[in-house]
Structures are given as structure tokens and as C-alpha cells.
Design goal:
The structure is a homodimer of 277-residue chains. With 277 residues, chain A is α/β, with parallel strands linked by helices. The first copy, chain A, has one domain (3-271): Aldolase class I (TIM Barrel), CATH 3.20.20.70. Helices cover 44% and strands 16% of the residues of chain A. The first copy, chain A, is built from twelve helices and ten strands. Chain A has helices spanning 3-14, 39-51, 63-66, 71-84, 100-113, 131-134, 153-156, 165-177, 192-202, 220-227, 241-244, 252-271; strands spanning 18-22, 57-60, 91-96, 118-121, 140-146, 159-160, 163-164, 183-187, 208-210, 235-239. In chain A, strands 2-1-10-9-8-5-4-3 form an eight-stranded parallel β-sheet. A two-stranded antiparallel sheet of chain A has the order 6-7. In chain A, β8 (183-187), α9 and β9 form a beta-alpha-beta unit. The longest helix of chain A has 20 residues, at 252-271. The two termini of chain A are 31 Å apart. Chains A and B meet through α3, α5, α7, β6 and α8 of A and α3, α5, α7, β6 and α8 of B.
């Protein structure tokens, strides 16, 4: 089963388009976990168990592990998700970008070492820096297009002919790079008009990973209405900090579950609206 | 001492602008190292010892370590270089690019965990994705501008007004992002005209990291003539595979040393030419 098939099945089965981002920050862990050698794994495991009923995917951000020498905990976490929640895809958020020979090693790291189902990648080095990931034909490759941060505009909104650079990237990614249907695109929730533009370019077969909801200020309603496919799917609405740190006491997992449930429901309110179609 | 000061001192002291790239591929290691648990460290240590007399810097590529669960060997390698060859800067090639809160963790990884002197970063997310690295005020931040691979043209040569995107990036990096003199730029040796364009934009204070010599086909002569500063310096001409795999027997380190010496000398022939100034 490919990543795209797995994701389509997860959307149907879970009735959710919420992706829970796993960005563990030890300084924010609740007291029961503080000081434990496996605190990062245990925190994430508790979040995964609490939010799995409301999530279509999990997205660990690798910097939050590598900054703390916690690669082994990341391996264990992804193995845990696969074992306990088979069918829920894991997107490794690492935004890799390098020449082909190096990209082949990043692919090996993401797909063989960590056993991720999909990886985020950076398009700045062009199509030949992305091709090596497609060698893993069952995996997903999610290309940064329009990122959720304010500074992204400096590069991504540069005007190229009658389009913005992020639209050029979206077109190339969808029309030229996506030779095996493995591709997705990242578009920040903070820029709904640009989500709409990318959906128009991408059609209904390409999933959009949408970060920036919650702490970063993106609104779920706008993002879902303009980003969903005609079938009312096609989105991974990612929420990280607003779920992970919903509570800071012993009941942090329960607080995370409640927030995840609320986010899933908020997404689902808007996926059914048809007035914009 | 800052990265830029360290690099200037290394250029003067070593009389070399050769940067030795450390891209260890276990499948290409010579027989004495095959199968050893610390083979990656030992291979790189032998290369470092053999080539240090001819190098102004070392550049480990992190994918070659992380694909093989060899983070501890990378830590040990950088510590070894600092201990044995103080004053030779280590550039960690990781091409990071993420929003500010995540970039702060990548900075922690590169500068606190690995103790690199400089890090390569990707500009696609704009200036606010690069600022967090500057918080380490003695470290270097080397921004991808024009990469050495063929596919880079798809994005980096997109025309924005009367310039190419890589020139827009170079200008923004030098004029707006480089608030503390910590910045360098990556320009591939495979495109000498574009090295010249970036040097014109960057002036003589910004070092250029130039990959793509050797296996990738870039020519040293052209790269050095158009890329050097008026003082005949300013370049990190990176060679990885052509040095690392110069030999494949028990004398691999000697073969690497001879190749590094030859590369250093070839670079130095061209740094003195004045006919192009």
C-alpha cells in the first residue's frame, strides 16, 4: 500500500483530516516526565495514544529529536505508531534538500532507518534533488511550496512572469516531478488565498499538508474551505504545539485529546460546506 | 574568535583554499576498515590526518552519518578535528531550512551538539528562518545560493525582474540578512559565470563555499579566477569524493593526501592570476 492509498484510507476510516505534529520540547514537559532519560519518547507516546482516535496522521519534526541526541527515541516512536496504530501514516518533517547523491542518503535515513511513510523536502535545488526519494515507490514526498512563516514571502512570493515563485514550484512539482503519484505539497494555513491557488494547480489527487494552525495563527475554517478537494478531503491540517501543550499538568494527555477532538470537529464543520464550490 | 576570523586566519596560515568534504560511504571503504563498528569515524579520521596539511577547512555532510545511525561518530569526528587541528574550521553541511522555532533547534544541534563552526542553510523559507542561527554570534551561516547540480537551474534561474532568483537571494542575504557579518554563500563550481555574479553582489567580505569540483565536473581554474576576492582569497573550494576515494587500498590516506595537495596547488595557481581583475 502506498502512502497516498494509506492516507486516503485513513481519511475515510478516521473521519479526520487532523495531523498531529510531534514537536517535543523537554522544557515544557509535565512534572511526571521531567528528568527521565526516555522523556521525549514517553511524552510523544502519551500524546499519540491520546490523540490517535482523532488523527489521520502523525508528523514528528526531526529537529526536536536531533537537537537532544534523541534519534533512538524517534526510531522507537515511529515503530510504536506503526505497531499500535497501523494504517495511520507517519510524515517525517525534515525538509531535506540536497544534490542527488546526498538525497539518496536522506531517503535511506527517512524510509529505511526511521521507517517514515512520507518525508517533507525543500524544492530549492530543483527536480533532480527530489527524484531520489521516488525510488521508494510506496513512500510520499511532500514538497515545500508556500510555508507558514512570515519570511517565506521574501522568496516564495517573488514574481516570475505572471506568477509567484510558489506557484511555479507547485506547477513543476505536480506536472513534471510527480511521475509516480507520490507527491504532496506544503501550504501554510496562514495564507488561505495561496492554499486556494495551490489547490487549483494541484487538482484533487495531490494531498496538501497545511501547517500553521493554532499557535502560528492560521484559521482552520478558511484553510479547509479553500484547500479541500471536491470530495471534501485532500488535507493534512497539522497542529503541533496547540495540541501537545494544551495542558501542562499530570492530565496533559487528556488535555491534548480534548484539543485534538475539538480541532478534528472544527475541520469537519468546514469540509462539508459547499457554498464555495 | 568568530568563524569568519578563524577562516581568514586559516587561509593565511595554511596557504590553502581547499575545503575537504567528508562524505563517508561505507561501501567504498578500503579493506582494513570494512566491518568495523567505528569504520565511519576511522575512515574520516585517516582522511583528516592525511589532508589537514593541505586544507583550510573540513566539511562533513550530515546525511552520510545519519543514514547509518552514526551521529556519535560525527560528534567524535568534529571533536577530533577541534582537538588535533585547532584553528581549522568545521562546516557542517546540513542545508537546514525551517520556521524560526524549529531553526532554533537545528542551530542547537549544529552548534551545541556537534560544535560545528559553521552550518549550511537553505534560503527558501526567507530571512526569518535564518535569523535564529545568528544567535550564535561566533558561528558562520552559509546560505545556498546557486547549487552545483543541474536541476538547480529549474528554481535558481527563474527570472525575477531583471535578475535570476539566485541573485535575488544573494542580494537579500548580503544586504538584509547578514546583520552581524556571519554569512557566507554557496555557489557551485559547475557555473563559473554565476560565481562571478555572486562575487560581484557579495563584495570581498563574504566567503563563498564552492562545491562541485572533481566528480561533479567543475573546473578549479575558472572557479578560482572569478570567485576569489581582490586579495586572492575568499573561497572554500570543496572537494569530497575525488579526495576521499583517490585510492581504494591500504594506502587510501596517502592517495587522499596527494590529491589534496594537488588540488591545493591547482587552486593556488589561479588565485594569483591578475589578468581578470
Amino acid at each position: 500500500m502506498t502512502f497516498i492509498q494509506m492516507l486516503n484510507a485513513a481519511w475515510r476510516r478516521t473521519g479526520s483530516m487532523l495531523c498531529v505534529g510531534l514537536d517535543p520540547e523537554p522544557a515544557r514537559f509535565p512534572p511526571p516526565l521531567a528528568g527521565r532519560a526516555d522523556a521525549i519518547f514517553e511524552f510523544c507516546r502519551a500524546i499519540v495514544d491520546a490523540t490517535a482516535p482523532y488523527a489521520c496522521a502523525f508528523k514528528p519534526q526531526i529537529a526536536y529529536f536531533s537537537a537532544y541526541r534523541a534519534e533512538a527515541q524517534l526510531e522507537a516512536l515511529i515503530a510504536y505508531i506503526h505497531a499500535q496504530y497501523p494504517g495511520i501514516p507517519v510524515v517525517l518533517d525534515a525538509k531535506r534538500g540536497d544534490i542527488g547523491s546526498t538525497a539518496a542518503l536522506y531517503a535511506r535515513e527517512a524510509f529505511e532507518r526511521y521507517r517514515a511513510d512520507a518525508l517533507t523536502v525543500n524544492p530549492y535545488l530543483g527536480g533532480d534533488s527530489i527524484v531520489p526519494y521516488f525510488a521508494y515507490s510506496d513512500k510520499g514526498v511532500i514538497v515545500l511550496c508556500r510555508t507558514s512563516n512570515a519570511g517565506g514571502a521574501e522568496v516564495q512570493l517573488q514574481r516570475v512572469g505572471d506568477a509567484c515563485l510558489y506557484q511555479i514550484i507547485a506547477r513543476r512539482a505536480v506536472e513534471q516531478w510527480n511521475t509516480n503519484g507520490q507527491l504532496g505539497l506544503v501550504v501554510g494555513a496562514t495564507f488561505p488565498a495561496e492554499i486556494a491557488a495551490v489547490r487549483r494547480i494541484a487538482g484533487d489527487e495531490v494531498p496538501l499538508l497545511v501547517p500553521g494552525v493554532g499557535v502560528q495563527g492560521g484559521e482552520i475554517g478558511a484553510a479547509v474551505q479553500v484547500g479541500r478537494t471536491r470530495q471534501g478531503a485532500g488535507l493534512l491540517i497539522n497542529v503541533s504545539r496547540a495540541v501537545l501543550y494544551a495542558g501542562n499538568g499530570a492530565d496533559f494527555a487528556l488535555a491534548a485529546a480534548r484539543t485534538a477532538q475539538r480541532m478534528r470537529d472544527a475541520i469537519n464543520i468546514y469540509r462539508g460546506f459547499s457554498c464555495l464550490n
